[in-house]
Structures are given as structure tokens and as C-alpha cells.
Amino acid sequence: MNLQERELLSKCASGLGISVPGDQLHLLGIYLDELWEWNEKMNLTGLSSRQGIIRELLVDSLLPSAFLPERGRLLDIGSGAGFPGIPLKINKSGIEVHLIEANSRKANFLRQVIRAAKLTGIEVIRGRVENEGTNLHPDGYHIITARAVSPLPRCLSLCTPFLCSGGIIVNFQGKRFEKALEESSDVIKELGLLLHKSIPYKLPGVDIQRQLLIFKKQG
User: What is the pLDDT of residues 139-187, one digit of tens each?
Assistant: First the structure.
């Protein structure tokens, strides 16, 4: 990541109230460089510019950090290229992170990023969450993130069995989030969840309304 890109990331994050110190910018730069290199061999993001990745993926992934604890266990379901799990790990180093990804090539990429950035307290689990219960933490997770994973009702059904009591599910939605919530109302009630926070936002340079949904497990 060059100086101009570091300044772009810092400015975009700051515009959304997110602080990214210099050491974290360095690690996110390693991540971006690895992603850009691997993206030439396999389609990890669908974005054609490094600036687009910074604005639409890195900054978007960092947005939940203001609502997360400093410690605990985080499960990132369908991690893909590592969004939001890796940026959140970099920003919240005290959180133990498990990235679950079914695609073997993507799982290998995630492991390479972890090696290159020398990240600790983070592990890649290759598989699908519905099939990998025995490989996940036996005491569950305090935070579960899901970005672009299934329609909301199914996403919540996949996440909740692995969530600690009082834990949160972080879900990213677009402008049709109200419809997604309406379609999920029965599931939310059945699973003992509560819509804890609903945060509207727009990414810098992208005039599309987005919504960060945070669900809390009651009990």
C-alpha cells in the first residue's frame, strides 16, 4: 500500500468515525497487496481497482468495530476474501477470530494473509458452518459476522446456534434492509434474537444507502 492509498484509507475511515492507527494501516496494506496479487489469479473481489477495494471492502469491513468489545471470540461465516473478519481482527487485535470458508483456494489465500501479516489469534476453518460444528469453539462465539451470506432469515438461522447468550450477529444489508427485516420477523422471534442496532451509512464516493444490522441473542 503506497502513501496515497494509506491516506485514502485513513480519510475514508475517519469520515465514518473509525480510527485506524499507523500500525494497523501497515497491516491492512499487507492485506491489500496480497489481495491484489491473488486477485490476478482468481476472482476474489470483483473490483478492478485498489482504490475500490479500499472504499468498498476495507472501510465497509471496519465499520462494525465501534460496536465490538475489545476481547471475545468472533466467527466470520463465509469469509471469502476475508471481509470483514481480517480487517476487524487487525482493528481489534484482542479478539480471537475464526474464519470459516468452504472454497479451498480462498481458504489458502486467507492463510497466506495471516502468514504475511504475522497475525496471531486467528484461524482458518475450511468448510461450511452447517457441517463444521465440531470444529468450532465449543463455548460458542461472542460475535458472528456475515457479509453477503444467504438471505437474512437463513443467515440468522445459520449463525444463532453458535452464538453465546448475549452475543451479537453483525449483518451487512443494502437499501432493501427493511424488506429483509420484515421477511425475517418470525425467524428473529423464534431464535430469541433482538434487533439491537440498525446503523445507516454510505461509503465515501459510493452514493448507495447501506445498513449495518446488529442482532443480540437474548437470555
Answer: 999 999 998 778 999 999 999 999 999 999 999 998 899 999 999 999 9
pLDDT at 42 over 90: no
- Across the strands, what pairs with 130? none
Number of H helices, E strands in the chain: 8, 7
104: exposed, middle or buried (Cβ count in 10 Å: 0-12, 13-18, 19+): exposed
Q: What is the CATH number of the domain that holds 110?
A: 3.40.50.150
> CA torsion sign, 4 to 6 to 10 to 13?
positive
Count: domains in the chain: 1
What is the extent of the structural domain holding 101?
A: 3-217
Q: How far apart are CA 127 and CA 119, in angstroms?
A: 21
- Alpha helices, H only, 54-208: 59-62, 85-91, 104-116, 152-159, 177-190
CB distance 27 to 117 below 8 Å: yes
Q: Which of 165, 176, 110 is nearest to 140 (CA)?
A: 165
